Amino acid sequence: MKRILFFLCISLLIMSCKDDFKPTATDELYKYVDNWVYQNMDQLYYWNTTLPVYKTTYDNPNTYFKTLKYKDDRFSAIFESYQDILNELNGVTSSEIGFDFQLYKESSSNDNVLGIVLYLKHGTPAERLGIKRGDIFRKINGQQITTANYSALVNTLFDATATSNITFSTYQNGIFTEKGAMTVAKATNYHDDPVYMDTVYTVQSKKVGYLVYNFFTNDDGDNSMKYDLELNNAIGKFKQQNITELIVDLRYNHGGMMSSAVNLGSMLVPNLTDNKVFTLTEYNKNYTDYFNSADFKSQTNENPFVNNFALAISTSSSATTPILNVGNNLQKIYFLTGRGTASASEMVINGLKPFLPCVLIGDTTVGKNVGSTLINDEKNAANKWAFMPIILKYFNRDHQSDFTKGFVPNFMVWDDYDHQIGDINEGLLGKAISQISGLQVSPSKVAPVKRSLFKSSIDFKRVRDGLIMKNRATDSYMKRSK
Fold it and tell me: If pLDDT is split at 50, 70 and 90, which confidence band does 482 have?
């Protein structure tokens, strides 16, 4: 009897606790956001048939979103600020330290971490201070970076309110020598230009074009298409100089807008026509049924399942600029790749493979053969959240999409920080030039620090490995589903 009474008391206590629960305004917002996320995932998510049964929740949306993701989904993501993410996708950052970097374990015998500068952002205070690729830093705000504190210290580099005193060091004969702390001011409202470098080298009478392209976006959010037009101009210069070889450096390119990938592919494919297939696209049943419906077909002649190469770049003013194509000049194309080369970059490589040989030099790519769209709440201004669910899988003309483990390069070459980007003696670029010329370019020096890869600056950014689909067809379906 006592045992029954005990359990009865416990049950009543639990019921009382439930009855006494009074959700806060934050709880109510989370409940709304969780429901909003679920409803959109049910409509849009590529793996929507794997979603659990919906249950009301007051979980933080970050926590809740993880419970919805398919087990093999490495890329869908959720964010607290739609506007911040939209800006990032367009290359706009509120506080830019001025360089990307790689973090390495200093030694297997200690927990110290060091950073190595990968490249400088043009026009930033860091560039004006003379910081350069290959510079080593071990301290931030006077503290040695370690495996325990790296996150807090590195995050100050992206915080507009935090001071960034960075201590750079030299390394020789196994000894680090500090050069003294340097205060690095952050660039505010920085607009990053994805066309980082374009130049032409003459190698044994051959004209070799070299393009460094660091992310895929049409413009910085002003609908001008200025970055795609700049990219087109760069290819136009290559064509004017009659290049016969092309090296496209995507080693630090984590992806971006699919429309820019289509445009870049169109600039490089031989015998450009707009009836050639660049990519084939696969969606969930909801999308597929809608795109095959009479209702959709009555609205447009667009085929959402096929992305053909483009003949022109269209701007918001309805003006068009012809694509400047250099594909007929090329027998093959050289892509420089890295561990972060992903999504839209891989789409270009995969899409061009059926049309001309693609030689990859560098490191294995990420392996993202799926794409997202950015979802925000247009009905409730209190909901600032946004998320990027995977909504599609893409294939090339030959229906190939078998690179989930990444593209393995034809030539595995260690990223060479001893030389600046564009230096023909730099490891990856030098290897490409040696393949073109048949001559051995001066080899890279042995890395000054024994490397044990730890983290990258991209790991501290909210958007990475992006392939964003946005067109009239997907917009039409999303408006209908709302």
Answer: low
